[in-house]
Amino acid sequence: MKLTFWGASQQVTGSMYLLELEDDYRILIDCGSDFESGDRRRALNDTPPPFPNALFPFEASSINVVLLTHAHIDHSGNIPNLYRDGYEGQVLCTDSTFALTSILLKDAAMLNQKRINELNSADSQRKRKKGRKKELPKDLYLEKQVRQALENFVPLAFNRRFRVSDNVIITFIPAGHLLGAAHIVVEVWENGQKKTIGFSGDVGRKGYPLLIDPATLPQVDFLVCETTYGNRLHEKGVSPDLALADVIKRTCVDIPGRLIIPSFSVGRTQALLYTLNKLYNNHQLPPIKVFADSPLAFESSRVYQRNVRMLNREAREFNEENESLFDFENLIYLESTDASRAISNHVEPCIIISSSGMVQGGRVEYHVAQNISNPYCTILLIGYCAEGTLGWRLLNGQTTLRIRGKDEQVLANIEKIDVFSGHGDKEDLLTFVQQQAPAELKKIFLVHGEKPSMDHFKNTLQSVGYENIEIPTKGQTFEL
């Protein structure tokens, strides 16, 4: 049995792991989009791909089944391309993951169509100037590929062992992090011997708004563990309610300003809206307008509302008492682009929640560009920002930023809180690994993190008795 790491290797995005069994059965765990810059991607890829002119470093048609840990696009975003390139099998995931992935992939296809139209328009101009035709990027799938992919999704229940072949059984175990997110345990029988591999997906946090706590992973032989926050601890002792109320008071009440919160539409925005709903219901905030500027967030919130039974007890009780997780009097969803741009003229204090969380694309780029030089504006970053993104540059204190082709002076206030981060920190990750007995765990693979985070977490694990820890490079294969 071989395990090859084709994504999220010494970087955070692009999760994709290929498990090849002796009977020629191939399992792909996650198939995510890679958001790293081209230069950084090339620097990390020490092993040349065997299919250099293809999107995937393997034959898509050779895969037998895909297992999806959760809906986020860095785990699911390349699935339509897998079907376009010849994959004909199923995608197994939880029911909530299927619902959220449907929304995310359809949205991605719409954005891809827009980008293709822009590239074709630019190409037409080049032709008129007798220039050379530019090829379209390989990863731009469209609605047709999304439909084909979604027709082959098979939702499975949590904590039910499911046989995918004569020699393979899988189990989805609640991971927290996002509605429907799962750890996956793969049981394999080869030559009369059973081997088990655990894939963490993204490890959630205890007590996170809306979500259940991560469940315990059974003992496995091999563990693939994410390390996004492997060298960091979250702020302790401050609840999301109090942290958010404090920021709003300082930025929208004490001064008549506006608060812009870049937030991922799926997961993070729901945690924010739920927390704001609680604050308004408890009369902890004045009647400030809250603009949720993302049609994707609106659709995702409906999925959360339909799946209240899958949320934690507090959320279920709040919903029963208030008849809604998210809706409150001062909440306004902005659907059209015109409505989004019109709030630039809103003169009263307000809160704008818009995607994306890393301030990389999406409507939030417009809001940041319009307000970056406004000293009465605060931009609140509430989660991880990959290196090179606009959010990362804001966090690193750059005084001038180039946004949408224009250099802007940073006069807005930049703040950060991490109580809404859906990723477990170093202690959470350590708790997750320590569910495994060191003497029975044959190897740990660290993925989905920057190299310093991985190195730090590897040292942490070694200090508490774990050995045989690998930090794979992209394309590296291990015999299990």
- This entry's quaternary arrangement is single chain
Question: Strand arrangement, largest sheet?
Answer: 6-5-4-3-2-1-22
Q: What distance lies between the first and last C-alpha atoms, to the nearest angstrom?
A: 5 Å
Average pLDDT reading: 91
Please tally the helical runs, counting DSSP H or I stretches of 4 or more residues. Answer: 14
Please tally the β strands and state the result: 22
Largest sheet: 7 strands, mixed
Secondary structure category: alpha/beta
Low-confidence stretches: 37-49
Shape: globular
Question: Nearest-angstrom radius of gyration?
Answer: 23 Å
Strand content: 15-25%
Helix content: 25-40%
Structural features, described:
This protein is of the alpha/beta class and 480 residues long. The chain has 14 helices and 22 strands. The strands form four sheets. The chain has a seven-stranded mixed sheet with strand order 6-5-4-3-2-1-22.
List the helices and strands and how they pair.
Blueprint: E1 2-5, E2 17-20, E3 26-29, H1 38-44, E4 65-67, H2 73-76, H3 79-84, E5 90-94, H4 95-128, H5 143-150, E6 153-156, E7 162-165, E8 168-174, E9 182-190, E10 193-199, E11 222-226, H6 240-253, E12 258-262, H7 268-281, E13 289-293, H8 295-306, H9 313-322, E14 331-333, H10 337-342, E15 350-354, H11 364-371, E16 377-381, H12 390-395, E17 400-403, E18 406-409, E19 413-416, H13 426-433, E20 443-447, H14 451-463, E21 469-470, E22 477-479
Parallel strand pairs: 3-4, 4-5, 5-6, 10-11, 11-20, 12-15, 12-16, 13-14, 13-15, 16-19, 20-21
Antiparallel strand pairs: 1-2, 1-22, 2-3, 7-8, 8-9, 9-10, 17-18
